[in-house]
Amino acid sequence: MTTGTKEIPTPTVRRGLLATAWRELKRAPISAWFGLAVVFAYVFVGVFAPWVAPYGEAEIVGAQYQAWGGQHVFGTDQLGRDMLSRLVFGARNTIGIAFLTTALSFLIGGIIGMIAAIVGGWLDQVLARLVDVLMAIPQLVFALVLLSIFGTSVVNLILIIAVLDSTRVFRLARAVAMNVVVLDFVEAAKLQGENILWIATREVLPNILPPMVAEFGLRFCFVFLTISALSFLGLGIQPPTADWGSMVRENATLISYGDITPLLPAGAIALLTVGVNFVVDWFLHKTSGLKDGH
Amino acid sequence: MDIESPLLEIRGLRIEGESGEVWHEIVKGIDLTLRRGEVLGLIGESGAGKSTVGLAAMGYARPGCRITAGSIRFDGLDLARLPESEKRKLWGPRMAYVAQSAAAAFNPAHRLIDQYVETPVVHGIESEGEVKRQAVDLFRRLHLPDPERIGERYPHEVSGGQLQRAMTGMAMACHPDLLIFDEPTTALDVTTQIEVLAAIKEVVRHLHTAAIYISHDLAVVAQMADRVMVLRHGELVEEATTREMLANPREAYTKSLWAVRSLYKQEESSRDVVLSVQGVAAAYGRGIKVLEDVSIDVPLGRTVAVVGESGSGKSTLARVITGLLPPLAGTIQFQGKALPPALRNRPRDLLRRVQMIYQMPDTALNPRRRVRDILGRPLAFHLGLTGQARDRRLIELLEMIELDARFLDRLPSELSGGQKQRICIARALAVNPDLIICDEVTSALDQIVAEGILKLLLRLQKDLGVSYLYITHDLATVKAIADEIVVMHRGRVVQKGPKTTVLTPPHHPYTELLLSSVPEMNPDWLDGVLARRAIAAAG
């Protein structure tokens, strides 16, 4: 029994979206602030890479494997390219490709998942079993096989990983949408004669958005790591394009000499992953906290 | 009695509740006295603070609430100041709570008896064997079938009414001094309700337990309570013994509480038939038939009420008519033409003509869409209205349901239960339908709000000439709105006809059972009905 069920008009207080966001931010824990700062810093560096980086992406500016300091803050790599500049451009490539891939996988998995939940019946069964089959093959091995069949290009990389990753998104979207499609307002929309796409985007999607956004953050990290792993194995982003995964591999020999330079791109990956997860944790906590009661 | 000190004495109780970081007072200084063995009824509409007071009587404030002032003296202890750990020792052995939904209160993964013995054993009152022996006694007293073995079942294996009785039994396992019943029969059908009421009444009387009985239904409280308190907006409206309250209520508000029972529509007939259902049978999957040979005619501009207990097939009939569940046999004619059985074969114009209003306005409105979109979409979709024409129609619709333009940009969560149901009505009306199927549309609302909705539906029918197929289990609602009645039982129509014909004897035996189970505003009603049924059973 809530207090709001009286038959009198209740005054509503409506805040702007920005004001609400700021109010939430002020109450956010320090970890969320840290995560947001990291994410924004990465995005900034990625977007403005040509201005931030002291040298060009593939420009050979000195001798191989120069030490830290002087003109090159983090030294140079195996071909004499500036390490810092490569890191900066790597942010743009790795994050950009990972973001595109994740967005595509959510588009595919999300829509098909919602449709499976809304239509149900045999279509749902066929789609779900198909996804089960795809998921039965280890993702990295599957990606390696497909990349060697279709050839390694950025477009192929994005498409293949997006499709493979969309199976996970499909499962989540279908599961959360299942809880929504049984509600009367979805039935009411069906009775009006609305088509499936309208029901999916207008009636179901807004109600499953919080878990989907949280999953987006997590998936982004996984995709990011997959791309880095593929690049490390030589099937991901191809040289001379700077990419953190391949940068680790290219400079790996330095480790034997006690030089930590190869760990810099690895560290960049780790830091972003931690940052994104802090933000996701906070977001999940917020939305689950809001969902109690009516 | 007077020499004895009261069991529970609440003085100047104030409770605040939090909503959106602002604290509002929801209980504003309530005094309450309960003697041993007495049953006190708390009534009022939702939001009156009944449940909050009921829980506070146990010294409990639900999350988001806090007791700010007053004392709660239970047998010499002030519960408002007692630490949680001390209160825990009282909860269960000395005081217990029976919630509205027994299905939600039982753990579905454990057998009834295991949940029953938990409290007495944890508190070290009795040994497990002894508790189980007592449980059988109590189950028998609660008229549960097969009392020796019913405890071995899981919650889903017994009916809703049986579960509610089992829960009452569980609350009484430690023989507490105080029991709080929070709307224990509200979710039940009238025919089931009467069994639960009888069982609770007998057990409370037998064990001489003091109880607070919370309900919004005065007729139910009249059967159970010795004394009644009427609450509104967290304040006491009036307090009197049950007989006095029924005989002459002093406050206008108290009188309005049972106004819905006095609502009566003059029945009218009509020659033209808008919907004709002939010999329909339906089943879910390959299961047993839920509907069997159902035939119903809905006259133009009139209301047909479909009455029956849950499981009688009322809602399934609605699903068949709307095309969600194509029938196995039979035909449906709408405005003289055969209605395609499946939803996807119906042209858009036909979908517009048949609209539906649901029982739970909370789930019938998309919580993420504003009123403007909820009402505007059918206007654009079916009538092709856009821009200013649509805005004008939106305002017109809101005025029709007695709301105004301020509501356009609200989310459903910013509306009260009654307002939400009004929006649902507006959504159905938006596209000028010929038939509206109302599925228990007032069952989730309290009586005053329900009365407003019923009056609105009546007025709209008069103004717009729309026909209603009104599904309900509540006979007071039927009297208020119907022209014709169809009584359904186990998927079959057992009686149908004009309202006065169906409501006057001779009845079909099932109609008789249904009618005699509706609580009356007479404290002797329950005992009377039970006595008559006992005689009938014996004879």
Annotation keywords:
heterodimer, A: 294 residues, mainly alpha, MetI-like fold, 70% helix, 0% strand, globular, disordered N terminus, B: 539 residues, alpha/beta, Rossmann fold, 2 domains, six-stranded mixed beta sheet, 22 helices, 38% helix
Structure report:
The complex is a heterodimer of chains A (294) and B (539). Chain A has one domain: MetI-like (MetI-like fold), CATH 1.10.3720. Chain A is 70% helix and 0% strand. Chain A starts with 16 loop residues before the first helix and ends with a helix. With 294 residues, chain A is an all-alpha fold. Chain B has 539 residues and is of the alpha/beta class. Chain B has 2 domains: 251 residues, P-loop containing nucleotide triphosphate hydrolases (Rossmann fold), CATH 3.40.50; 244 residues, 3-Layer(aba) Sandwich (Rossmann fold), CATH 3.40.50. In chain B, helix 17 runs parallel beside helix 18. The model of chain B has no long low-confidence stretch (mean pLDDT 87).
Determine the number of helices of chain A (DSSP H or I, runs of at least 4 residues). Answer: 11
Give the N-terminus to C-terminus distance of chain B in angstroms.
40 Å
Write the CATH fold name of chain A. Answer: MetI-like fold
The CATH fourth-level homologous superfamily of chain A = MetI-like
Architecture of chain A, according to CATH?
A: Orthogonal Bundle
Outline the low-pLDDT stretches of chain B.
none
Tertiary shape of chain B: globular
Q: What's the number of extended β-strand segments of chain B?
A: 20
| Broad CATH class of the largest domain in chain B | Alpha Beta
